[in-house]
Design a protein that fits this description.
Elements (H helix, E strand, L loop, with lengths): L6 E5 L2 E10 L5 E8 L6 E8 L7 H4 L1 H10 L1 H4 L14 H4 L5 E6 L15 H15 L4 E10 L1 H10 L6 E9 L3 H6 E2 L2 E2 L2 H10 L28 H6 L4 H6 L6 H4 L12 E6 L3 H8 L16 E2 L5 E5 L13 H7 L5 E3 L13 E2 L2 E2 L14
Length: about 375
Amino acid sequence: MASHQQRTEIRDGMRIDWDVPITMDDGLVLRADIFRPMKDGKYPVILSYGPYAKSLAFQDGYPSAWQRMADKHPDVTAGSSNLYQSWEVVDPEKWVPHDYVCVRVDSRGAGCSPGFIDHFSPRETKDFYDCIEWAGVQPWSNGKVGLNGISYYGINQWHVASLQPPHLAAMCVWEGAADWYRDMTHHGGMLSTFWENWYDMQVKTVQYGAGERGRRSRVHSELVCGPETLSDAELARKRADFGTEIASHPMDDDYHRARSAKWDKIVTPLFSAANWAARDCTRAAISKDSRAPPPSRNGWRPMASSTGHISTPTTDANSSCASSTISCTERKKAGQNNRRYCCRYGTSTSSHRAPKVSGRSSAQGGRNSISIHRR
């Protein structure tokens, strides 16, 4: 156990704190890796909370995806040792030199954090809230915490923003979703088996307690799934039966609503809102201001369309987005009966490329205009 205690080292121009403990309101201790500038000071924080094992290198966890990215988008790997690249989160070597602190938290039950895995549950969302508030008061923090990440790390941004953490200053959501029933588990009312397969391949393999059966970090050689090695039976008792749970809730009930964002509570400025299959529409809607107004202001209110994908109202009369499939009743509920909605599928390869931000691709992690940098 001692090898996974908090420790600090200087390498690659960063001050790195490994396995920092963060205590949750129920007493459980989660573990985080923190990448900081060398010089003392108070900096804005970019934080992520998720289940993919913070110390597992992208190259080791997803070698074929890494190779395709490196071959087709060499600009992403340029300018970095790539030792600290992890799946779907920022590369600290691209952000720390620009005076940001990068915090990666292993979610409850995953990586180096013990506990019971229950994805997107109110328990996880409260953990995320506690991590944000913890980061906001650390001596190296300027009190402003931004969230950045893809897919899982985008989905849970919507959830935690519903709780309005006082230190949450900005969000950058990539390929996320917000309605657990329509966007994720039941597309058009039809059960999606994606999550069950994803759970088997991407979560169980890095569950806390895999120990010696899991991988070791290529950076510090510690086990990425914690110091304990548990039996298969013990591991099964420490996680939800995710696929069965989803299938046992065929309708949009309390189970789904507890795992969906509360749009009327979200007031955090958005740098991006690239939800699954609606990125082009969202970009058109927020193009006038990279800090998109929260849903409750100026007639903006993201909705879930009948296709099962997030739709966002646009104020651009010349927008190329198609007319909405949302009913008049739904529009009136949202106060949007005079606006058009868009929900177009982003199917082309180009729709998945990172847009340019301040002269750099966001995939490069360059300094940008999110509103967390100034005190």
